Amino acid sequence: PPLLSPDSDRLKVEESERTEGGVLRGPDLLGYVGIEAVLDQMRRKTMKAGFEFNIMVVGQSGLGKSTLVNTLFKSKVSRKSCSPNYEEKISKTVQLQSVSHVIEEKGVRMKLTVIDTPGFGDQINNDRCWEPVLKHVNEQYEKYLKEELRVNRQRKIPDTRVHCCIYFLPASGHWLRPIDVEFMKRLGKIVSIVPVIAKADTLTLEERTEFKQRIRQDLVANGIQVYPQKENDEDAEERLLNNTIRESIPFAVVGTDREHQVNGHRVLGRKTKWGIVEVENVAHCEFANLRDLLIRSHLEDLKQVTHDVHYETYRVQRLTAGAVHQGAESNKKLPK
Ligand SMILES: Nc1nc2c(ncn2[C@@H]2O[C@H](COP(=O)(O)OP(=O)(O)O)[C@@H](O)[C@H]2O)c(=O)[nH]1
Ligand SMILES: [Mg+2]
């Protein structure tokens, strides 16, 4: 029997003619349909399921990586290395460590994984120290791809892909060092990199402005891609918002694990002999800008870019390479 009766076929054509090129908005409709309720449905589903966010921190030890991540999420999600034990100190290789926590706020659950890279850039010869990081990022793509390709696959594939890589630049520098260039050049192609200036409380305001400008120039000069990338802007509105971010990176940040009293309020800050650096005060440093970018405005976008751009690139490369490989294999088996 035909799947569609001639009648319903005609109906379909008429409908598509009527709506072609046009948007039917509220006032055009005969009454309230209730499409907007989909937002509530999405909200409820997301709240029930929770979501994953995987963040990686890269930079030499002592730059305040663990402290900053803890400051970002206002909890001890990463272990501070105040007194590195002997073994850690002599570690000759970059060792990646993942720690996961579930953070819940107002009923929304986020499974946060922090991937730390102790040992990065700590050796005298830092040749190819980007390699273990690159390997880790690609391994997570591979894991996801393998799950996706399985016949009986899970309804929701566990996501271990790195959604964001915060790269810590030491505040002492005047320009990007070779290790920074080498790392960001390679990793920028496969993961969203957000460069930050670590321990920015050690710079004067002029030094900070100069250093930031210099880094932006160096990034362009070396063809390094950092997040948010221009070609991934989805519309004019997003472009405008992202332009302001692109003009102000790298954020000069300060981290802390202490609260102090300032004018009767408890604030996160670092106490020095000459005063308190307030971490969340935009007049003091750009920590708030970083937090807003990573969590309040671009968290979902970071996840989307990871899936739609970085993972997609990996998937296409991997599957075309696989197809070529298989083709070659089957060619060999062909009878001559
Ligand atoms: N001046 C200053 N010191 C910081 C800052 N963030 C962390 N520190 C200190 O730097 C040391 C190393 O911090 P840690 O987070 O363990 O660095 P990591 O090795 O990169 O994870 C600790 O003594 C921190 O208190 C900062 O923004 N400014
Ligand atoms: Mg650490």
Automatic annotation (TrEMBL):
One of its GO terms (biological process) is cell division. Residues 49-321 form the Septin-type G domain. SUPFAM superfamilies: P-loop containing nucleoside triphosphate hydrolases. Keywords: GTP-binding, Nucleotide-binding. GO terms for cellular component: cytoskeleton. One of its GO terms (molecular function) is GTP binding. It holds the Pfam family Septin. InterPro entries: G_SEPTIN_dom, P-loop_NTPase, Septin, Small_GTP-bd. The keyword Nucleotide-binding applies. Belongs to the TRAFAC class TrmE-Era-EngA-EngB-Septin-like GTPase superfamily. Septin GTPase family. This is Septin-type G domain-containing protein. It comes from Gadus morhua (Atlantic cod).
